[in-house]
Amino acid sequence: MQRLVLRIRREDRERLSFMNTDTELGRPWYHGVTGYQWLALTIASLGWVFDIFEGHVFVASMNEAMPALLPAGTSKGTIDSFNNYAMGTFLVGGALGGVVFGMISDRIGRVRTLILTILTYSLFSCVTAFAQDPWQMMILRFMVALGTGGEWSVGAALVAEIFSKRARAWSLGIFHATSTLGTWVAVLAGVLVVANPKLGWRWGFAIGVLPALLTVWIATSLHEPERWVQARGVAGKDRQQKAGRVRDLFAPELIRNTLVGLCLATVGLAVYWGVYVYGWQLLRQWAERNHLPPTSVKHWEMLGMFLVTSGGGLGLLSFGPICERIGRRGAFLVFHLCGLVAGLVMFQGLANAGVAVLCVALPIFGYLTVAIHAGYAIYFPELFPTRLRGTGGGFCFNGGRFLAASFLLVRGWMRTEGQVGFGPFRVTGLGLSMENTASILSLLFLLGLVVLLFAPETKGRDLPT
User: Fold this and answer.
1) CB 46, CB 174: distance < 8 Å
2) Pick from 21, 275, 280, 322: CA 20 to 30 A from residue 14's CA?
3) In this predicted structure, what is the pLDDT of residue 272?
4) Does 324 score more than 80 pLDDT?
5) Residue 61, domain member (yes or no)
6) Cα dist from 208 to 49, 130, 190, 412, whole Å
7) Is residue 88 within 8 Å of 415, Cβ to Cβ?
8) For residue 417, what is the domain's CATH number?
9) What are the pLDDT digits (tens) for 260-271?
10) What CA–CA distance (Å, rounded) separates 88 from 141?
């Protein structure tokens, strides 16, 4: 009888919860969102904005920074290979930082860990301004990435735990979509700082110290989510419910979710760094073909970065409402298929088109190829219980960064003319064009379709406790 009463009470709570949220017909998703929830979303998003800036300021300056650090006369293919190595070390550092800081956030809290991640990426970005050779650049990119990798997993967990089930997909979609602002700031730095002969690429990295000021606002305005506080209390009483243990992600009830999240992130991040960033270079190539002066070439490159990113930002914003309508799996399916088509059309059909065609096509390319990244912020927190939410999200998203780094090595090998690698690991590069390299790597979207066959649907469910 007691069990029956408890079951009835539980069902009543679930029914009331459903009535109070998902069935509020005619009311927008933001109905009932509190001022503190908006504040937390704003602060977490700003951390993510600056996170993206720290990652993309290198992309905005790599065509100036790496040649300056290498001997004069170094071939373009070799420069491109070193840029790939630098981006590869960034992905590896992000993978490690995401897992480590995700574990820390499950143990000491979201807010304190968010502060640590922002301080890490901002301070090491500033130090990058003093790099004197490619190896120093790579090491410092690794250190920056420790913070950027951790910030995403902590910020996503914080937002997921503060907002209700009804508003979760929208709020997390907005959180991830603000990455567009970070890229825009990197574009401005590329135009106003990197391309400025009186400043240059070193100042582009030096201004990366400014986000450290955000930590003061975090420390004085945010408190730990109630879900995390409750989970910490349970963990203190039950060793089986200990927070932040990576091995628990591979328990029988979680291993499928862990592998699905890891594989989805690997596909998306490999395509991002292997295909998406090449879209930024198409207007630069057009400017070089027309023999424009270096400053103009840089401005056209930054316009390409702006157009692709703007389209991508719209894609990120749209993923939340789309997955609320057709489900998480359905939204991932649509955008994996569309991303594959967009990559092949862009690099096999339009890469050498005129400037007007490129300016129209690049935002569409960005929209279709990057929207799935908002899905990671929405989907990954829904796959893991509170005591493992930061650890699980960090492991999946940033483990994907680590595995995606291998594709950057492959991209460098595909692009390099002559020998590539070090010591006994030197091999002959394929010398493929940028267009063919990006087209081949676009096929990775097909792998994502296979992963979706095993992905659980989480639409309409409460966060696991």
Assistant:
1) no
2) 322
3) 87
4) yes
5) yes
6) 12, 13, 13, 27
7) no
8) 1.20.1250.20
9) 999 999 999 899
10) 9
